[in-house]
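> call design_seq(struct)
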C-alpha cells in the first residue's frame, strides 16, 4: 500500500492499513476525546483541544513542547481518514494540513491544524504521560544498545 505523504525528516517505516488506521484512531479517541461534548470531533478531532475538552497548550507553547519530545517511532494520523503512517523521526514538516503526531504508546499528541496561527497547533499529554514517556526513553535506549551490538557483530 502506497501513500504520497511528504514527511521530513526521516523515513516512513510503515503505511498502516485502513483497518489498522481505524483501530489507531479509536484508541486515540478513547484517550483524548472521551468527553466530546460541545466539540465537533467528526469534522476535526483537534476540536477537542480548541473547545477545551482536553487540556492542551497551543501556538508557540505547543511547538516548543513538541520539539523536546522523543520516542523510537512516531505515528502520523491524518484527520481526513487517509491511512496513518509510522516514521522513524519526529516530523518537522508534513504535506497534510490537519494531522496528529504521537508515539506508539500515545504518551502525548501534537495536533497540527489548517488554522495554524489562529487555532493551533495543540500539544496534549496523556493522563499517564510520565510513565509512558519513561517507557519511550527506555525503548530508545534499547534500540541504541541493539544498534551498537549489531555494529560489533554481536547480533
Amino acid at each position: 500500500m502506497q501513500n504520497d505523504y511528504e514527511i521530513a525528516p526521516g523515513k516512513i517505516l510503515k503505511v498502516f492499513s485502513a483497518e489498522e488506521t481505524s483501530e489507531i484512531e479509536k484508541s486515540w479517541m478513547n484517550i483524548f476525546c472521551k468527553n466530546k461534548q460541545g466539540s465537533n470531533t467528526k469534522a476535526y478531532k483537534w476540536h477537542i483541544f480548541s473547545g477545551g475538552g482536553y487540556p492542551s497548550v497551543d501556538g508557540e507553547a505547543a511547538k516548543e513542547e513538541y520539539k523536546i519530545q522523543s520516542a523510537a517511532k512516531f505515528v502520523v494520523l491524518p484527520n481526513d481518514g487517509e491511512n496513518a503512517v509510522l516514521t522513524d523521526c519526529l516530523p518537522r514538516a508534513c504535506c497534510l494540513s490537519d494531522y496528529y503526531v504521537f508515539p506508539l504508546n500515545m504518551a502525548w499528541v501534537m495536533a497540527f491544524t489548517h488554522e495554524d496561527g489562529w487555532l493551533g497547533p495543540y500539544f496534549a499529554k496523556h493522563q499517564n504521560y510520565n510513565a509512558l514517556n519513561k517507557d519511550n526513553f527506555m525503548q530508545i535506549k534499547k534500540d541504541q544498545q541493539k544498534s551498537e551490538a549489531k555494529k560489533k557483530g554481536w547480533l
